[in-house]
Amino acid sequence: MDRLTEKLKLLRNIVPDDGFVLSTKFSILASKKRTPKAGFVFPNFWPSYAIVAALALLVIFIGDIKPPEVEQSVAEIAAIEVVAASFESDINITLTEIRAYGDSAAKASAALYKASSNDLIHSPTPQEINQLLE
Amino acid sequence: MLEDEQKLIMEAKGGEAEAFGRLYDYYLPAIYRFILLKVSQREEAEDLTHQVFLQAWQNISNFSARGLPFSSWLYRIARNLVIDRYRKTKPVISIDEEFISEKLIFRPALYEIDDKQDIARIMSALKKLRDIERDVVIMRFVEDLSTKEISITIKKSEGAIKLIQHRALKKIKTILEDK
Fold first, then answer.
1. Which CATH number goes with the domain that contains B35?
2. Does residue A125 sit within a domain?
3. Fewer CB atoms inside 10 A, N or C side of chain A?
4. Structural domains of chain A, count
5. What residue numbers bound the domain in which B41 lies?
6. Domain total in chain B
7. What angle is formed at CA B87 by the lines to CA A8 and CA B41, rounded to 5 degrees?
8. Measured between alpha carbons, how far is B30 from B152 in angstroms, rounded to an integer?
9. Do the domain assignments include residue A1?
10. Does residue A13 sit at the B interface (CB-CB below 8 Å)?
11. Which of A1, A11, A17 lies at the smallest CB-CB distance from B122?
């Protein structure tokens, strides 16, 4: 065996061509070295993360479990709807009030017009004014 | 192992081409021989060696020295590239003295014709081994890697490496005796 291993060591005498060694060296070193991507880099044990993520998704879909983020967003939407409904009723109330003010202003205007067109000697009684306003 | 290897690796990781150049100079002959003895074609060996060092340079930032010698990392890249290249077809090259004389380059010290004949016989015998047996024999006896380094490179236990090595040597001996 020793003789055989000695013969195997003869293969160490094989060398690459000097021209190849130099030209390859220059072309490699001239090539742009990749720089690691900025931001989050998965550590070496990333496959375990992938397995955990896959299992979590499986549990969510098979077990029909909504992840907390989804539940939270549903609750938020419900709350927004309640607030929107209260705003709507507030707006309706305001519009009714505006309409009522508009009506009474028109009536007051009509009453004043009628009063001014009447005989100046005759001044309307409070009952007449009330009648006109109604 | 190269002197100041860890320092050179750190500098190369930082983008210093000169540091990587020194690693290249030191490891290129071994990686080239390893590939050449696997593929038996000089042009292919040169092309694949170029790719090994190009990949190493471009990915050295990802190299982690924890438990993995730099040499093992290079051998791993080389093994994977050879596997990828010959996944479908294996090259059929007859290795004879003519091939040895015309295609290969030797250190100036090797003048003996007998040595070249021995090299041709050994290379032919290596081609008849299984890939893993050939890899172990080249790394252990040609490149003088320790069993531990080989076990890290090939991802097998040291015991398994010793067993593969023993079987491979027996096979080579039988092949050479049959000739």
1. 1.10.1740.10
2. yes
3. C
4. 1
5. 1-89
6. 1
7. 45
8. 17
9. no
10. yes
11. A11
Helix (H, G, I), strand (E, B) or coil at A14: strand
Q: Domain of A91?
A: 78-134
Nearest residue to B33 (alpha-carbon basis) of B54, B23, B48: B48
pLDDT tens per residue across all 179 residues of chain B: 788 999 999 999 999 999 999 999 999 999 999 999 998 888 999 999 999 999 999 999 989 867 789 999 999 999 999 999 887 666 666 666 667 767 777 777 665 667 778 888 899 899 899 999 999 999 999 999 999 999 999 999 999 999 999 999 999 999 998 86
User: Would residue A93 count as lying in a domain?
Assistant: yes
Q: How long is chain B?
A: 179
Beta partners for A14? B106
In the block, tokens 């040895």 appear at B100
Residue B104 is nearest to which of A5, A9, A14, comparing CB atoms?
A14
CB contact under 8 Å between B115 and A28, yes or no, is: no
Interface test with A, best of B13, B110, B123, B134 (most A CBs within 10 A): B110
Q: A83 in a domain, yes or no?
A: yes
ipTM of the complex: 0.83
